[in-house]
Design brief:
This protein has 11 helices and 5 strands; from the N terminus they run E-H-E-H-E-H-E-H-E-H-H-H-H-H-H-H. The protein is an alpha/beta fold. It has 2 domains: 124 residues, Response regulator (Rossmann fold); 75 residues, Winged helix-like DNA-binding domain superfamily/Winged helix DNA-binding domain (Arc Repressor Mutant, subunit A).
Length: 217
C-alpha cells in the first residue's frame, strides 16, 4: 500500500547534464519531492519507466535528441497508468506550447524561472491542477467580472473569429488562410488581443478567453 507521507516521485528528461543536475538537486532539496529517474532524452526516459515504477510527475524538455518532447508526451499518454507532465523549456515558443496543451500537457515552465515559481508549478501539478504562468498572472490582475465585461465590450467580430481559430491546434498561417487575411493582419489581431487580455502568449490568450466563456475549448 502506498505511503501517503512518501515524497512525490519525479522523472526528468533533459539532454543538458548541467541543467538536469541542477534541477535534480533543487527537487531533492525539498522533503516533498524525490527524483526517481534522470534521462538524457525521451527514449531513455521511457526505457527507465518500463524497467521501474512510473514517476508521479515528469519534467519534460521540449528540444531533445533521439526523442523530443512532443514524441515523448504522445508515448506517455499511451501508458496504462496516468502520469502528470510538466514541460520545462528554454524557448517561449507559443505555438509549440499550445500544441503540447492540445496533446495533454499539464503545464509548462521556462528554465529561467526562479526556484519559488518552480515549486509553485510542481505543487500545482501535484495537486491535480494545470500550471500555465500567464493564466495565473492575468487572473490575478483584475476582478473576474470586471475584466471579463470590459474585454467582451471591446471585441469586434473579426477578433472573435480569430479567437475561435486560435483555440484550434493550427498555425497562425493556417488561421490567416481560413480568415482570408495576410499573416501580417493576423499578427495585428493577435497583438491587439494580447494587449486586451494582458497576456503575451497564445496559450494564455486562449485559456483566459475560455475561462471568461468567450470561446469554448
Amino acid at each position: 500500500m502506498p505511503n501517503p507521507n512518501a515524497p512525490i516521485t519525479i522523472g526528468i528528461a533533459e539532454d543538458h547534464t548541467l541543467v538536469r543536475n541542477a534541477v535534480s538537486n533543487l527537487i531533492n532539496s525539498s522533503s516533498l519531492y524525490r527524483v526517481s529517474i534522470e534521462a538524457n532524452n525521451g527514449k531513455e526516459l521511457l526505457d527507465f519507466i518500463h524497467e521501474s515504477q512510473i514517476p508521479e510527475i515528469i519534467l519534460l524538455d521540449i528540444n531533445m535528441p533521439v526523442m523530443n518532447g512532443f514524441e515523448t508526451l504522445a508515448a506517455l499518454r499511451k501508458l496504462s497508468s496516468p502520469v502528470k507532465v510538466l514541460a520545462l523549456t528554454a524557448v517561449n515558443n507559443e505555438e509549440a506550447v499550445f500544441h503540447l496543451y492540445h496533446s495533454g500537457i499539464n503545464g509548462y515552465l521556462l528554465k529561467t524561472a526562479e526556484p519559488e515559481e518552480f515549486f509553485r508549478a510542481l505543487n500545482c501539478v501535484a495537486s491535480g491542477e494545470n500550471y500555465f504562468p500567464e493564466l495565473i498572472f492575468a487572473s490575478a490582475a483584475d476582478s473576474f467580472l470586471e475584466k471579463r465585461n470590459k474585454i467582451i465590450r471591446s471585441l469586434n467580430e473579426r477578433e472573435l473569429m480569430f479567437l475561435k481559430y486560435a483555440a484550434m491546434d493550427i498555425s497562425y498561417n493556417e488561421i490567416a488562410a481560413r480568415m482570408h487575411l495576410s499573416r501580417y493582419t493576423i499578427n495585428d489581431y493577435r497583438n491587439s488581443l494580447f494587449a486586451k487580455f494582458n497576456v503575451h502568449t497564445r496559450i494564455g490568450l486562449v485559456l483566459i478567453a475560455a475561462k471568461y466563456k468567450i470561446i469554448e475549448l
